[in-house]
Design goal:
This protein has 214 residues and is mainly alpha-helical. The chain has one domain: SLC41 divalent cation transporters, integral membrane domain (Tetracycline Repressor, domain 2), CATH 1.10.357.20. It has eight helices and no strands. Helix 5 runs parallel beside helix 7, helix 5 runs antiparallel to helix 8 and helix 7 packs antiparallel against helix 8. It starts with 6 loop residues before the first helix and ends with a helix. 32% of the residues are buried.
Length: 214
């Protein structure tokens, strides 16, 4: 039997498959299965989406407790440190989600091993420090122009650089560890890594303030 392959049709099917996989990965990154999100039943949508919101709730509660524990530092200098919490967290979360995205993409082609994890963590740490250092210098310069307070700038530089480096490590480590533990990292990695990155960043930022402010 002789068969004829329609190359154009085959290519189109492959392109459609890649687009579907990309959409699935995008939704999974934020804690939602695309197939579940498209269900018409609101209760099924609730069941698939609510559990991962618990990560955000837990992170928000811990963040509130940290703010209470570091009230003195946050109140220093007319609450100058508190003004920069949104940008400090936004930078860390951006790096974390970048790292998670790249890691999940890599896990499709290379199964993780414990032996390979440490070198990758080392490379990601260097990348995170470079990103964090560059961002910290820019934000620190802007803070100096607006506030002119050297101690606040030192806290910002430490918090941003350390937070972004920690976020990069968590974005790599969480998907790897989930896969090594034979769990599906595609849905859990995004919300879990972001929550851990927020907590690590706040701790670094607040402890830098505790050590540097009078």
């Amino acid at each position: 039997l002789l068969g004829v392959v329609d190359v154009d049709l085959y290519t189109q099917e492959m392109s459609d498959l890649e687009r579907r996989e990309s959409r699935d990965q995008l939704f999974q990154l934020i804690g939602v299965q695309l197939s579940d999100a498209q269900q018409g039943n609101p209760f099924l949508g609730f069941r698939s989406r609510f559990p991962w919101l618990l990560c955000n709730m837990g992170g928000g509660i811990v963040a509130a407790l940290l703010s209470i524990a570091y009230q003195r530092e946050l109140a220093w200098g007319n609450a100058a440190l508190a003004l920069f919490i949104p940008v400090v967290l936004a930078l860390a979360e951006s790096v974390c989600i970048q790292s998670v995205s790249l890691t999940l993409e890599g896990l499709h082609s290379r199964p993780p091993t414990w032996a390979a994890l440490m070198p990758r963590l080392g490379r990601e740490l260097v990348t995170g420090l470079l990103l964090g250092g560059s961002s910290a210098l820019i934000i620190g310069l802007a803070a100096f122009l607006f506030l002119g307070q050297g101690r606040v700038i030192a806290c910002l530089v430490n918090g941003i650089a350390g937070g972004m480096a920690a976020a990069a490590l968590l974005g790599l480590a969480v998907p790897h560890l989930l896969r090594l533990l034979r769990l599906d990292p595609r849905v859990a990695a995004g919300p879990l890594a972001l929550t851990l990155a927020d907590m690590a960043t706040l701790l670094l930022y607040f402890n830098a303030a505790r050590g540097l402010l009078p």
